[in-house]
Design goal:
Elements lengths: L2 E6 L8 E2 L9 E6 L11 E6 L7 E4 L5 E4 L3 E4 L5 H12 L9 E7 L3 E5 L5 E3 L7 H7 L11 E5 L7 E4 L12 E4 L5
Parallel strand pairs: 9-13
Antiparallel strand pairs: 1-3, 2-12, 4-5, 4-8, 6-7, 9-10, 11-12, 11-13
Length: 188
């Protein structure tokens, strides 16, 4: 599954996403990245497969402590790790004590949800899927209300303090798991 990786690109005028403190608009390119760069967090659900060991394999929700609880082996820290890093951590935890030379595969089953608030018909929390754009997110929330500013949206990424301004009539920014999208009211 594809994950989202954010990077700032060169500045070319009043388009794209603007940081909360920026005064000039800056394009905010968001490229699809490999699953290895996606960082797991609270709310994600993973499938851990230990080949030829069905007693240790299974589906696990990342707990509020940022861990998954493997049968027999106990807790393994999953939060803020990539899929590859979690595979290595699980293999290390199992190696020798429970399984000889474990071969581990980890897959993200469900990503943490994102939120849409403000001037949409059905504000709330929605399930994330790779490739989701801000226009898709607004559509999932029932579309704009008649009071909505359809030209500007605000996105706060999980782990960031401020919001970024998105010029929705110029760009179609990607949504990441855990994002908060705010649709403001328009002023005449």
């Amino acid at each position: 599954m594809a994950a989202i990786n954010m990077s700032l690109s060169n500045c070319d005028g009043p388009r794209g996403i603007v940081g909360a403190a920026d005064t000039a608009a800056t394009p905010y390119a968001m490229a699809e990245a490999s699953p290895q760069t996606y960082r797991l967090a609270l709310g994600d659900k993973v499938k851990v497969t230990v080949f030829n060991e069905p007693d240790v394999s299974g589906e696990f929700q990342i707990s509020s402590a940022g861990k998954i609880a493997l049968p027999l082996a106990g807790d393994v820290v999953a939060a803020n790790r990539t899929v590859d890093e979690l595979e290595s951590a699980v293999a290390k935890k199992l190696n020798g004590r429970f399984v000889k030379n474990p071969r581990v595969a980890v897959e993200v089953l469900t990503y943490r949800p994102f939120n849409v608030v403000g001037e949409v018909k059905n504000a709330g929390q929605y399930p994330y899927r790779p490739g989701l754009t801000i226009h898709d997110a607004v559509a999932m929330a029932g579309g704009y209300t008649y009071r909505a500013n359809t030209h500007t949206l605000y996105i706060r990424r999980q782990g960031e303090k401020g919001e970024r301004t998105v010029k929705s009539d110029v760009t179609s920014a990607s949504v990441s798991p855990g994002d908060n999208i705010r649709v403001p009211e328009r002023y005449f």
